[in-house]
Design a protein that fits this description.
The complex is a heterodimer of chains A (120) and B (107).
Chain A (H helix, E strand, L loop, with lengths): L2 E5 L2 E3 L5 E8 L8 E6 L5 E7 L6 E3 L7 E6 L4 E6 L8 E10 L2 E7 L3 E5 L2
Chain B lengths: L3 E4 L2 E4 L5 E7 L7 E6 L6 E5 L3 E2 L7 E6 L2 E6 L9 E6 L6 E2 L3 E5 L1
Parallel strand pairs in B: 2-11
Antiparallel strand pairs in B: 1-3, 3-8, 4-5, 4-9, 5-6, 7-8, 9-10, 9-11
The chains are: A mainly beta (120), B mainly beta (107).
C-alpha cells in the first residue's frame, strides 16, 4: 500500500546536526513533489520544506532557511532532511508528506512522524 | 505569510449532530484550501482540497465550501470516529500555512 516511513529522529544537543530519512513505497515516488512538515507536541502544523520531483526546486520556511537541507534519491524512493545548527525550538515531530499534485499543494499521504529533541 | 484563523477552538457536538467548522484567511487564497483531520498520536489525514473536493476514500458526510477568505468544513452527522482536531491549510501562496485547529469533542 501507499506508505511513507520516517526515521532518524532522536536526541541532539543545541548546535548539533541530525539527518532524517523517509522511505516511500506503493507509488511512483519520482513523480511527486515531497515535503517535510513539523508539529510540536500539542501544537499546530508548520511546513518546513519541499522538493520537486526531480530535485530541481526546493523551498524552505524562513525558520529553517540556511540550516536545513532537503534532498531525495528517486532511485531509492527516499526523501531526506539534513538539519544543522539545531535549536531548542526545532524540537518537534517531523512528518514527511506527499503533495497531491494536479495544481493542488495539499498533502495527501503522510508518514507516522519521527521525534526530534534538541536539548543539552 | 498568510495567517489562517480557525473557529471555534473547541466545538462540543453530540454524535449524529451536524458540525460546522470555520477557517478564515487574512487575504484571498482563492480556492486553494485544504482540510485535515488529526487524531491523537496519528498523522494528519487529508479530507478536502480545492476547498470542496473530497480526498480519496473520504466519507460523503464531510463537505467543504467557500472561496477567497472564508471557508467551512461541515460534518453532516458526526460519527464517533470523527472526534478529532481539524486543521485548514492554504496553499495559494508559499509558505503554505495552517490554521491553529478546531478540536471537535463529545458534548
Amino acid at each position: 500500500q501507499v506508505q511513507l516511513v520516517e526515521s532518524g529522529g532522536g536526541l541532539v544537543k543545541p548546535g548539533g546536526s541530525l539527518s532524517l530519512s523517509c522511505a516511500a513505497s506503493g507509488f511512483t515516488f519520482s513523480a511527486y513533489y515531497m515535503s517535510w512538515i513539523r508539529q510540536a507536541p500539542g501544537k499546530g502544523l508548520e511546513w518546513v520544506s519541499y522538493i520537486s520531483s526531480g530535485s530541481t526546486y526546493t523551498n524552505y520556511a524562513d525558520s529553517v532557511k540556511g540550516r536545513f537541507i532537503i534532498s531525495r534519491d528517486n532511485a531509492k524512493n527516499s526523501l531526506f532532511l539534513q538539519m544543522n545548527s539545531l535549536r531548542a525550538e526545532d524540537s518537534t515531530v517531523y512528518y514527511c508528506a506527499r503533495l497531491i499534485g494536479g495544481g493542488h499543494d495539499a498533502f495527501d499521504i503522510w508518514g507516522q512522524g519521527t521525534m526530534v529533541t534538541v536539548s543539552s | 505569510e498568510i495567517v489562517m484563523t480557525q473557529s471555534p477552538a473547541t466545538l462540543s457536538v453530540s454524535p449524529g449532530e451536524r458540525a460546522t467548522l470555520s477557517c478564515r484567511a487574512r487575504q484571498s487564497v482563492n480556492n486553494n484550501l485544504a482540510w485535515y483531520q488529526q487524531k491523537p498520536g496519528q498523522a494528519p489525514r487529508l479530507l478536502i482540497y480545492g476547498a470542496s473536493t473530497r480526498a480519496t476514500g473520504i466519507a460523503a458526510r464531510f463537505s467543504g465550501s467557500g472561496s477567497g477568505t472564508e471557508f467551512t468544513l461541515t460534518i453532516s452527522s458526526l460519527q464517533s470516529e470523527d472526534f478529532a482536531v481539524y486543521y485548514c491549510q492554504q496553499y495559494n501562496n508559499w509558505p503554505t500555512t495552517f490554521g491553529g485547529g478546531t478540536k471537535v469533542e463529545t458534548k
